[in-house]
Recover the amino acids of this structure.
């Protein structure tokens, strides 16, 4: 399945089905995944089980939010409360937060998934429910437009898994079979399934899972039908809380279109609710090219045998003639990453012959490209009008840059987005192991770190947050802490 729209981070979830609720946490352009990866992209929050822990992860569920460019007023951690968890033999645990609604979940001994809705600001349980089906493993939990969705794990591309959807009152309202290569986008009142087994896109109603339309994937003359699908995103999605891969937690409620790139290099814009094709154009991109979709513009960085690659922009409304943004000067130049990184801006991560030691960031969309070296970088993520890189070596470090190339933050640890101006900085990389995690708040105007204290005895990879609080799974409980004053 694919990775986050708009840009993804280095923290990757396990192989399995994928749920995407929005963005697209980054549009949704599928990233290369190993066999047995099913993606559910919910225009909502994303939660993926990693090493037994449900963690917010790339391209499973994608969400949105409003433009948020205020500095967070950080305060030392204050514990709000806790809820009992599954205990030491936890199986898999999950959390996700959207606004003041949190969902926490864990697998049970009977292999069903128990989900609880929680008022995040008080840690008060609102309801609890269990899935009607049992599964050997569960991969994701995400808040979506109609409530919350859970995805079971699969063992092969031919074995159907189950998407289970609950409404906001905790009633299971529908299930849907998916396979390990599939991708699922929750887009407001509609759901789009990228069915890679049948080589088709399927439209469902989010309220009841009923199919409303279907399109076969475009094919080449030889019959090849591979495809890449991306939700249409907005700058707002770069300014809300994002997980360890920078994928927004919140469900999206604005643009419900998807962009499909066909094996025949065609591109078409599809209304998720009706299945209507709003625009199409031949010879635009290959499914393996780098693509980002932001604020009505389709950005494509396609390999070019003469120059290395060429980056162009298409108006989504017409898919007319492209505007050339950049042409590589070195035939050996390659694009590793293409993400939305500000209003009418995209950022490229370029290398020479795929050598990460030569990695360079290019910001495109302005009067002229801006570039700077980021040796060792493999992926980019966005936080408003900033880009950040988590370097996965030892020590694990995060570097944050303004779009003019200025270094805003260079620190050990893992940084995550709160909004367009503020981040959390964890001293360690995400892990499913229990530990005491030191956390700081960072406002990007000056890069100053504000120590928040320790999260004691938590599984960092299970944590999720909004702009005021964080919830994590511990040994025997789900714990809620506040780190900023309420708005």
């Amino acid at each position: 399945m694919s990775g986050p729209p708009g840009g993804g981070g280095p923290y990757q979830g396990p192989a399995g089905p994928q749920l995407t609720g929005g963005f697209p946490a980054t549009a949704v352009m599928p990233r290369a995944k190993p066999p047995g990866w099913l993606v559910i992209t919910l225009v909502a929050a994303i939660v993926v089980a990693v090493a037994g822990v449900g963690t917010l992860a790339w391209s499973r569920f994608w969400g949105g939010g409003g433009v948020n460019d205020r500095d967070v007023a950080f305060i030392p951690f204050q514990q709000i409360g806790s809820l009992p968890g599954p205990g030491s033999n936890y199986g898999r645990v999950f959390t996700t937060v959207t606004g003041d609604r949190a969902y926490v979940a864990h697998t049970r001994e009977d292999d069903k998934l128990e989900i609880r809705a929680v008022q995040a600001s008080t840690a008060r349980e609102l309801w609890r429910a269990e899935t009607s089906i049992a599964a050997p493993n569960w991969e994701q939990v995400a808040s979506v437009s109609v409530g919350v969705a859970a995805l079971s794990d699969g063992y092969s591309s031919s074995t159907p898994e189950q998407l289970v959807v609950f409404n906001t009152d905790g009633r299971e309202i529908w299930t849907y079979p998916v396979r390990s290569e599939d991708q699922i986008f929750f887009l407001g009142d509609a759901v789009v399934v990228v069915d890679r087994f049948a080589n088709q896109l399927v439209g469902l109603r989010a309220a009841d899972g009923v199919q409303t339309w279907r399109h076969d994937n475009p094919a080449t003359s030889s019959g090849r039908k591979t495809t890449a699908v991306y939700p249409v995103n907005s700058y707002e999605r770069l300014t809300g809380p994002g997980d360890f891969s920078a994928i927004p937690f919140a469900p999206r409620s604005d643009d419900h279109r998807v962009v499909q790139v066909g094996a025949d290099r065609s591109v078409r814009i599809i209304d998720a609710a009706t299945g209507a094709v709003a625009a199409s154009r031949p010879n635009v991109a290959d499914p393996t090219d780098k693509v980002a979709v932001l604020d009505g513009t389709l950005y494509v960085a396609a390999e070019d045998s003469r120059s290395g690659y060429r980056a162009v922009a298409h108006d989504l409304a017409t898919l007319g003639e492209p505007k050339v943004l950049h042409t590589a000067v070195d035939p050996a130049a390659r694009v590793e990453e293409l993400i939305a990184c500000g209003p009418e801006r995209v950022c490229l991560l370029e290398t020479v012959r795929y050598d990460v030691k030569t990695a360079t960031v290019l910001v495109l969309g302005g009067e002229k490209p801006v570039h700077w070296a980021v040796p060792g970088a493999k992926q980019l993520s966005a936080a408003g009008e900033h880009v950040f890189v988590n370097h996965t070596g030892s020590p694990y470090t995060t570097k944050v840059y303004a779009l003019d190339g200025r270094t805003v933050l260079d620190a050990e640890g893992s940084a995550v987005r709160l909004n367009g101006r503020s981040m959390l900085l964890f001293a360690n990389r995400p892990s499913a192991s229990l530990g005491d995690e030191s956390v700081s708040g960072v406002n990007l105007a000056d890069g100053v770190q504000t120590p928040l204290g320790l999260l004691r005895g938590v599984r960092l990879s299970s944590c999720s947050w909004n702009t005021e609080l964080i919830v994590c799974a511990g040994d025997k409980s789900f714990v809620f802490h506040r780190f900023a004053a309420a708005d």
Notes: Residues 188 and 253 are 5 Å apart (CA to CA).
